[in-house]
Design brief:
This protein has 371 residues and is an alpha/beta fold. The chain has 15 helices and ten strands. The chain is globular, with a radius of gyration of 21 Å. It binds ligand F0G. The site of ligand F0G has 22 residues, from α5, α10 and α14. Ligand F0G binds next to α5, α10 and α14.
Length: 371
Amino acid sequence: MPTENARAFFEMSNLEQGGGVIARYREFLLVSDSTPVVSLGEGNTPLVYAAKLSARIGRGCEVFVKNEGVNPTGSFKDRGMTVAVSRALERKVCALICASTGNTSASAAAYAARAGVPCAVILPAGKIASGKLLQAFVHGARIIAVEGNFDDALRIVRELGARDDLAIVNSINPDRIAGQKTAAFEIVDLLGDAPDFHLLPVGNAGNISAYWAGYNEYCARQKSTKLPAMIGFQAAGAAPIFYNRVVENPETIASAIRIGNPASWKQARAAIEESRGAIDIVSDEEILAAQNWLARNEGIFVEPASAASIAGFFKCWNAKGAAHSFEKIPEGSRIVCTVTGHGLKDPDARKIDNIPPVPANIDNVLHAIGF
Ligand code: F0G
């Protein structure tokens, strides 16, 4: 018998449940009437048509940017977090725990605050972008900085997570992957079919696995007629899947994907192989150039890790040395690039030009504008 509380949740409208991914894709998720929905209205993010990227390829191809930076805490993690936290609450856990390069901790902290459960985030000391650390702090998470990298933090969390009273909300929790697959659903719902290519950054490799699961599930339900080739991009200094070996000391400006031993390595490999996609690398210079390009040409400001998919797009377009090339792409192909997190999360990745002050009068200001 459902409790009074459970019935109350069941009777709530989608709107009252936050209008997020559980409300919209309930039938595809392992939630029941007795799952207390913890939502911040995540998902339903813009799929922005990128005219300039489309023009680069020509041949009637269309390029879209799935802007996940506009989720409630500024990254795609919220899609998985709503499911993971709701299900953890249903199991009546005492606290949430995660390792993170930043975004997972920001998201976990926010959803934990909303749910009213304590949250501990285990972070590599000194390696988290300031905006993300600020989020975890402001939302009241217990922050533990370990002397090591993300892979060390995740190892510790795995050990702690063996306890029943703690819920791990990293992407090794299948609820996270289930929630994140809704991004693929949204793309198919909007385009009317799956795209031909899907480009995205790869770190711990949960997201590429989640998208692939989502595309497959929708295809199996006849909501799409095809599956995209999944093309993942790692930072050159943190590219274990590309090099097919653990990277002991991963290094990149894209701190979100500074990972040397991804948890979903096997699943990502399967997604790439089954979809006849590719895994490739982009340098920090290419990442920063792509971040700049996207901000200045399409009006979308993303954090460095997110720009890996755009840097990857340019690599495929240039074709030189790329694992995948757009040179012979079929006419009218559709390409989706996911950008995963908002640019404001990592203000220190970029230096602002020195802006010398001018006297506060029209002449000086006009002169300084220089138009
Ligand atoms: N982009 C951003 C902005 C991320 O924060 C992450 C992962 C990724 C891409 C890669 O996604 O791990 O599913 O392959 N961030 C995790 C974190 C590791 O702790 O916030 P992935």
